[in-house]
Every structure is written in C-alpha cells, then in structure tokens.
Amino acid sequence: MPPLVGEIIAGILLGPPVANFVPDPEAWLLLGQIGLILLVVEAGIDIDIATLKRTGLRGLLIACLGSILPIALGIILAIIIHGTKDMKQVIAIGATFGSSSLGIALNTLKVAGILNSPVGQLIISAAVLDDMIALIILSILEALTAKELQISNILIPVVSAVGFLLIGGYVALFVIPSVNKKWIMPRIAPENHGKAKLIMMFGVLLIMMPATFYGGSSYLMGAFLSGLAFCQSVELQDQFTSQFKRTLSWLMRIFFAASIGFQVPMKDFGKATVIWHGVVYTFALLGKLAVGWLVPNFTNHRNYRGTHLRDILITGFTMASEGEFAFVIAVFSVDNALTTRDTYASVVLAVLISAIVPPLGLRWVLAKEWAGDDNVNDNDEEKGNYSKGQSSTSEDENDEDQVSEDATNTPVTIKACDSNIETGLSFDSQDDSLIPPSDLGN
Q1: The pTM is what?
Q2: Helix 341-367 to helix 87-96 angle, to the nearest 10 degrees?
Q3: pLDDT tens figures, 140-157
Q4: How far is CA 210 from CA 186, 301, 328, 332, in A?
Q5: Taking Cα atoms as reference points, which of 314, 286, 436, 281 lies closest to residue 386?
Q6: Deepest of 31, 37, 56, 399, by most Cβ within 10 A of its Cβ?
Q7: What is the largest CA-CA distance in the chain?
C-alpha cells in the first residue's frame, strides 16, 4: 500500500472529518499548498526542452480528451442516477471528474524515476494543462450560479490561460535565459551562479503566481513557468535539490493529509446510497484511463506491446489520480447549492477512490517485467526508454534525511528511502536525462 494512502487516512482520522484533533486546519492546508507549489516549480525546472518539443502537442491532446471524456461519463452516470430534472447538479457532478491531481502525478513519477523520460514529460505537460482546464470548468460552474449567464465569465479564464501559456512560455524559455546569460551571470562569480539563479527564480515566482491568479488562470501555471525559466541551468537544479529536498518531502506529506484527508466527509459515508453512488461515479475515471492509448511509441518495440503498453498504462493510471482541484470543484458545488450534501459525499468518495486505486495500479505496472526491459541500449535511451528501478533494501531507510554532498553528479536523484516514504514505490533512480543539452547548460 503506498504511504500516501496512510497520509490521507491520517488526515481523515486526525482532521475535521473525525477527531478534529489538528489545530488550525487552514494553516495545515496552507503548508500543503506551499509543498504543491514547490513540487510544480521543480517540475518546471526538470523539463527537458528537446523532449517537450516532441510531446507538447500530444500532451495538449491528452489533457483535453482527459478532461472531456471523464466529464461526459460523469454526466451520463449522473443522469442515470438522478435523471434530467436538475441539470445544474448533473453538470456539477460531471465537472468534478475533469481534473487530474498534479501533486500525485509529480510525486509518483519523481519517486519512480521516470519524471524526465519522454512519457514523464508528456504526463507533466498534460497535467499542467489539465489544471488550467479545471479552472475553466470552475468558472463555468460559477456562471451557473449567477441569475444571468454572462459569456465573459467563461471567456476570460480561457483567454487568460492560453495567453499565459504562449506568452509566458516564450518569455520563460527564451527571454529570461538570454538576459541571465548576457547581462546578469557575467557580473556574478561562477561559484555563486546556482544561488543567484535560485534567488532570481523565487523572484519570478513571486511575480508570476499573483499575475496568473488575478489574470484568471491557475496560480500553479505561474509556478510552473517560474521553474521552466531556469530549466536550462544545471547549477540551479543542484541548488534546488540540495536546499529543498527534505522540506519538500515533508510538505507533500502534509499536502496529502490536509488537502485530501481534511475534505472527506466520513460521517456521511454511513448511508448506503452515498456509498453505491460513489462507486458508480468512480467509473467516470475510465475516461482518464482511455487517454493512455494516445501515448506515442517512444521505443523500438511493437505498438501497444511490451514497453509501449507500459507507457500507456503509466499515463492512464497517473492521469486517473484525482485530488486537489476535484475537491475544490466539489466543495464549490455544494456550497453554492449546485449539489446536495449526500451527492457531495458520493462524489468525494469517488475522488478518494481515485486518489488511492490508480497509484496502486501504477505501482503494479512499474514492478512488472515488460518485454524489452532487458534490451535497453544507449540508442534506446535517447528515444525515451528508461530502466525499471529495482527494489530498495531496508538499509536505505536510514538515509532519509541525508542530502547528497555531490549534487553536481546527481542533480535531482530521488533516493530509494524517499520512495518508501512518499508513495511506497521502491526504486533506485538513475536518470541521466536530467542533464540538459550542453549548449544550454548555463
């Protein structure tokens, strides 16, 4: 069982749903959100430009269909259960299943050592876009609560998201690195380049997050673009890993306990209708699993067989994990009387199942021997293959709080001990694709 399940259960038992033992739950939610922001920044830092060029459009397709299909299935299931009398409730139920958990996706891929593989980069680009789509869905729900439907309430988030993606992405990839290289870094001693870039990155973060939030887009898009602006710097990767590895690990534990566990209405799960409705709603996630079949074949093996099938399943299970935005949409719907309290409990139960079962499926996929795993050569690695990690031993557990002294050789190596803590996936991560092209290494 992945430890994130234990973290969620701890949040349920100790938080407001049951014991209400945790003081100031809002403060813990804030700490969890800080952890999520740092994780998204790290995802931006770890982006490989060459791989992103190959997967960008496919990531957009997976993100769009990965939202549309589960929403459509959710609406169909809601109509089967509730009928068409209250279509606002039906739409609100379906909208809950459109988002994927960026936190679970990043955490799982990082621990498994495949964050920087082509399929990992594909999933991250899709998950970031998925969050923007979730925000657009939320704006549509807000429009449904108004007495008069205003088109501007729907168009503003769409235009804002596209604008930040295109303009912000261009500035992050071309303008900021060029300014750093020509005007700023020559004035700083080489041994301080990593620290200087780390400070500048957080400066960009403090600008981009409010800009995206008040611009009607997702603040996580601002966090991602801030990390993306420095993805070509090995020095910054070293500094970020050495400074925030332990902190990020603990903050993500808080994130899963607070952002998910605190939102579960356990007292409402005693009703039979709530349970069976929740189980039925879970089938909406089949739409998320289906998008895995859109993953291109990054290997030299046959389509839909062996390692390609592995990539398909990895994508499907990762995208099917719902979390923070699903809870936001569900809470908004019940607070604005779009759904009833029992419907809210059923939807949350389905989201909770999605946060637990898909990571278990992903663990099985990564532990399974796939045809072609033993035939990976140097040329295959350039095409996107990655070696399957081996199980860690109990001796690794004593290394949890150690930070690598030689960060240059392993810029974002995730130790096996952290794997045991964060998701229960045990891997020795040896991913050389983290190092960007030499000509972008400034």
Answers
A1: 0.67
A2: 30
A3: 777 777 766 667 767 777
A4: 30, 45, 19, 21
A5: 314
A6: 37
A7: 68
